[in-house]
Amino acid sequence: MATSPRRFTWPKLDKFTLMLVATVALATLLPARGGFVPVVDIIGRAAIILLFFLHGANLSSEAVKNALGQWKLQLLVLGSTFLLFPLIGLAMGPLSGRAIDPALYTGLLFLCCLPSTVQSSIALTSIARGNVPAAICAASASNLFGIVLTPLLTGLLLASQSAISFDAVWSIVSTILLPFAAGQLLHKRIGGWLKARKPIFSVVDRGSVLIMVYSAFGKAVVGGIWQTVSAIDLGILILFCIALLAVVVIALRVASRLAGLNQADEAALVFCGSVKSLITGVPMASVLFPAAMVGAIVLPLMIFHQTQLIICAFLARGYERRALSANPSP
């Protein structure tokens, strides 16, 4: 029996995106001031440590080992995430100060250094009837490498803006690497407990980002971000995000054909290699950049986050239709 076609529906804003918008609005109207600023900073730093500890504890060692299996697909995902994206970001450099605000371009370049997102890439691959196990391995490997590669790439590409000094390196180690390593060491003891309590993990995951977004945008508002970033700037930024995602998706589809991947593996490549992690990006920006810059740095990432969800949802449905046409249900 043939599968009935799905009715077209417009993608909706997910709850997390709505909470991000509400947090930015709160930070705009009621930014932290005076004695409340160090309190928010302490809470934000504690949230980063807890976030990366939980990510380490939640990441299965078996998933990391399995990531080495399909080496062709894994290398293509890592190449897209940590090579293709930064090269495209650098190619946009001449447009900084001409077509796009320099501060927002810095945020775009930082976005290009980030690892893939885990939840979205796996969910999109599943919708597309793609190779979900490969997507899990690829997204896990991307985040594992990103703990080290993102700060290194940021230091190389944004040496004048990011605070890559001894203090910054120690901050990365103490706030990100050590908590992540501690979580990995405790994975066998608490990993199962965390998996059985995904809602709690999700609350900490997203709550940490909301706290850091409030802190970052509060400082940016006090510093006058909305006096320097106009509605036109935001519109141009959206176009840049769409163009960046389109170029990467096209490049990955071409690479998939050249590498001889089947459709299921191509879906995993496209949805792991074209998305960027907001959950990882916001805390890393808080560690790597001066407080006054963080708001403008994470703004492109927040916009790209929603852009990738909407566009990739359409792409995933297209892959799903092709998969159903190739293998119709009896």
Describe the overall structure.
This protein has one domain: Up-down Bundle (Na+/H+ antiporter like fold), CATH 1.20.1530. Helices cover 78% and strands 0% of the residues. It has 15 helices and no strands. With 330 residues, it is an all-alpha fold.
Order of helices and strands: HHHHHHHHHHHHHHH
Q: How does the overall form come out from the CA principal axes?
A: globular
Largest sheet: none
Q: Radius of gyration, Cα only, in angstroms?
A: 20 Å
CATH topology: Na+/H+ antiporter like fold
CATH architecture: Up-down Bundle
Structural class: mainly alpha
| Total DSSP helices | 15
Q: What descriptors fit this protein?
A:
single chain; mainly alpha; Na+/H+ antiporter like fold; 15 helices; 0% strand; globular
Question: Summary?
Answer:
With 330 residues, the protein is an all-alpha fold. Helix content is 78%, strand content 0%.
Task: Set down the secondary structure blueprint.
Layout: H1 15-29, H2 36-58, H3 61-66, H4 71-91, H5 102-112, H6 118-127, H7 132-157, H8 166-185, H9 187-195, H10 198-222, H11 225-228, H12 231-259, H13 263-273, H14 278-288, H15 291-326
